[in-house]
Structures are given as structure tokens and as C-alpha cells.
Specification:
heterodimer, A: mainly alpha, two-stranded antiparallel sheet, B: mainly alpha, promoter-specific chromatin binding (chain B), transcription (chain B)
């Protein structure tokens, strides 16, 4: 019966795309259902023969809350210690906190003893040693999305590129994709999904018509050494009516002036709405 | 790796405990908790817990499993105690109902010890005999 239950669930997961459709499960619902199966397995191992569905759901909710509470406490301990990854000490602290309501051996002398010499850990070790192992009814396929979003996995991949730059300290964030700053790496292979978000709407380097104007969109890749660029706004240009703002005060203290001539935009030969124009003055 | 270092630094002169803990952690590698790793990872990621170490994920799973098992055991004791409290002559008639069923009543009593106050509507759909008067229940 149990295996049947999981089978239907898996079927639902495969079809799970838009959560708005009827009969589909959102990821949290799916997680809840999987937890319910696990909890019912535990209940059966304890000795129950059957369960009221409301009672089972309540116990499932409590179990999920317990897990999340444990995780968030451990995460907050690691954040207090200026770490992003949690370790055993954080988890032990969290376990001590969570089980302090019921009490455990050695709870009174937590500060005196070593943190890892915790009664809770020993109880869990005893549970593992003496309890029988009940694996989950069915293996769950790991979702590909979770892998892509997982920070840990990303870090693992970064280590390869990091080995090239040993002088860079480990705590610095990883370099962006090499294609975003190195022109030699760019080519027809360039994958659209890996572009900068600024360019995500427009195909790179293409001209296209938008609102009567032809716009040229430049790529987001910046050369390492660039010329100094000056912008000018509010100065009458050579071939068009200029308009703009004087940026000398307030935000732009550098005294840079930005220039944008309307004539340039309409002109067929120089489509440069986004292209910074080298200033003449 | 990280926590192993911490572990070694912070516990000099406690070799027995250290050895036991190390052994326990390494035994988690071969242990399959009832709560699957994927599910635990989902909840951990939701709560902002980052850790590449499988052993810690298993530890969280085992801790949760232990908690659920304890609550369920308490509920089972409540259930047995309730059934034992019935007067002897009635017991034969209720033999049918003596199956061990996880009910809201027992669960809420068990959870109260863990600081969870459950006040849940007992749904009529849970049990066909709910709401009937006790006399007709026995028949």
C-alpha cells in the first residue's frame, strides 16, 4: 500500500510544472507528502497499526517544523560566527537548544564541558546503534533544479578555476564566467543562458527596431583597459538638438558631463542610443 | 573536514569521547535514515543551512527521526494506557477496537510534553463512529 502511495506521488512530481493547475503539487506539498510517508513509516516501526489522517498530518507538520527549527538555529549559530557553512558545533548547539525543553544528561553543565561532549549527541548515537534501520519506501529522484540552484555545488565547480589563481584568498567570491570578461573565450559557442542579465532581453550585438528607432545594443563585456569616456548632457550638438541635465552638482561630483543628441538616434548611420559617445569637448 | 578540525582542536584529553564521536559520525555514512537525504536537504536549504557534508545532513535526519519516534512512542503509551483503563468486562466487547491506532487524542497528549499544544478539530470523516453516542458505538 505504501509503495503504491509513493508511486502516485512520483507520478505527480513528474508532471509537476505549473503549480496552478489542478491536481498538481507544489514543491512544498510534495515535500509534505514525502515527509508524511516517512513519518508513517516511523509510526509503524514504533508499533502503531493504523493512524487517523489528521493525527498523521499533525505529526508530519510538527516533524517538519522541528527539522526547520533545527536547521535555522544551526544556520544562525554559524552566521554569528561569521561563517556561511554550518558545522558540527553549530548543529550540536542547535540540538542542545531544541532539546532543552525536555532536558538531557549534561544539560546543566553545558558551558563547562566540551561542546561536542553533548548528551544529545550521545542519545542520538545510541538511537542509531540500537534502533533498527528503516530506509525510506522508495528512492527519490534528485531534482535537477536543486542541483543548479545549490550554492554548494556551484562552489565545488569553482574550485577548479580557482586552482589557477592560487594567490587569491579563498574567502573572496569566485570570478564570474570567463566569457563575460575575456574576449578570446567568446565565440559561436557562447551560450545564451550564461550571458549577463543586462543583455538577457536583447540578442547580443544585434540591431533591431524598437519604437521607430533602431537601437544598437552593445555587449556587456568590458575590456580590461578602457579609454576614458566622457558624457555630455545639455550641450547643443553639431547635428541635433541636445537636452539634458547638468550633473556637476549632487550625485556626480566628478564633474562629468553626459551628452546625448537626439539627432544621433534618428540618424541611420549612427545608432548609438546606448553607445557612449566620445565627447568632443 | 571543517568540523573535524574544530573537533580535534577543542577536545584535547578526551580521546575516548572523541573516538566515539568520530566513530558515530563515520557510522552515519553507512546508515540510511527513514527521512531521505533529499527531503532533509530541501528543508535545510529552505532554512538557510548550508553544508556540503553528508554526515551532518544525516545527523539532522536522525535527530528528527528520533524526535518523531519519541513522540510516537509516547502516543503509543497513551493509547495503551487508555485501553488498559477500560473496565475488564467491557474489554472483551472492545476487543475489536483494541487495534493500535494513532489518534489525535493520544498525539495531543504526547505532544504536550514536548511543548506543542495541539488543539485540533476532530473531523467526523476521520472516524465513522465519531459523534455517535457511546451506547450505539459498542454494538
Amino acid at each position: 500500500m505504501k509503495s503504491q502511495k509513493t508511486k502516485t506521488k512520483k507520478h505527480q512530481k513528474q508532471n509537476q510544472k505549473p503549480p496552478t493547475e489542478q491536481g498538481e503539487e507544489t514543491p512544498s506539498e510534495f515535500a509534505f507528502t514525502v515527509t508524511k510517508v516517512a513519518v508513517s513509516q516511523i509510526c509503524r516501526s514504533v508499533g502503531f497499526k493504523a493512524a487517523e489522517s489528521s493525527a498523521l498530518e499533525t505529526l508530519t507538520l510538527v516533524a517538519a517544523k522541528y527539522l526547520q527549527q533545527l536547521a535555522s538555529r544551526a544556520a544562525s549559530y554559524s552566521h554569528v560566527a561569521h561563517r556561511s557553512e554550518s558545522n558540527l558545533v553549530d548543529l550540536t548547539n542547535a540540538l542542545n537548544d531544541v532539546s532543552s525543553g525536555q532536558g538531557f544528561p549534561g544539560a546543566s553543565a553545558l558551558n563547562r564541558n566540551c561542546m561536542l561532549d553533548s548528551g544529545v549527541l550521545k542519545e542520538i548515537a545510541g538511537f542509531v546503534r540500537h534502533g533498527c534501520e528503516i530506509p525510506f519506501a522508495k528512492p527519490i529522484p534528485r531534482s535537477k533544479n536543486a542541483h543548479a540552484n545549490s550554492v554548494c555545488c556551484k562552489k565545488e565547480n569553482d574550485r577548479g578555476s580557482r586552482s589557477l589563481h592560487l594567490h587569491i584568498p579563498k574567502w573572496l567570491p569566485a570570478f564570474p564566467d570567463e566569457r563575460s570578461y575575456n574576449k578570446e573565450c567568446q565565440g559561436p559557442v557562447c551560450n545564451r543562458s550564461e550571458k549577463l542579465w543586462e543583455n538577457s532581453e536583447f540578442p547580443e550585438g544585434e540591431r533591431f527596431n524598437f519604437g521607430g528607432y533602431k537601437w544598437e545594443v552593445l555587449g556587456g563585456d568590458l575590456a580590461k583597459e578602457r579609454e576614458k569616456v566622457r558624457f555630455k548632457i545639455g550641450v547643443k550638438g553639431n547635428n541635433g538638438v541636445g537636452f539634458g541635465v547638468d550633473l556637476r552638482n549632487g550625485v556626480c561630483r566628478g564633474g562629468k558631463r553626459v551628452r546625448w543628441n537626439v539627432g544621433d538616434v534618428i540618424d541611420d548611420d549612427q545608432h548609438c542610443l546606448f553607445k557612449p559617445r566620445r565627447s568632443l569637448s | 573536514m571543517n568540523h573535524n578540525n574544530n573537533f580535534q582542536q577543542s577536545s584535547d584529553g578526551r580521546h575516548d569521547d572523541d573516538a566515539a564521536l568520530t566513530e558515530f559520525l563515520s557510522s552515519l555514512m553507512g546508515y540510511t535514515p527513514t527521512i531521505p537525504d533529499e527531503l532533509v536537504e530541501h528543508y535545510l536549504a529552505k532554512s538557510g543551512f548550508q553544508c556540503p557534508d553528508v554526515r551532518l545532513i544525516r545527523l539532522v535526519a536522525v535527530a528528527t527521526q528520533k524526535f518523531v519516534a519519541e513522540v510516537a512512542t509516547d502516543a503509543l503509551q497513551q493509547c495503551k494506557a487508555r485501553q488498559a483503563a477500560v473496565v475488564k468486562d467491557k474489554r472483551d466487547k472492545q476487543q475489536k477496537d483494541k487495534r493500535l491506532i494513532l489518534t489525535m487524542e493520544d498525539l495531543s497528549k504526547a505532544l504536550r510534553e514536548y511543548g506543542v499544544n495541539v488543539k485540533h478539530q476532530e473531523y467526523f470523516a476521520d472516524n465513522p463512529s465519531t459523534g455517535m453516542d457511546p451506547a450505539s458505538k459498542e454494538e
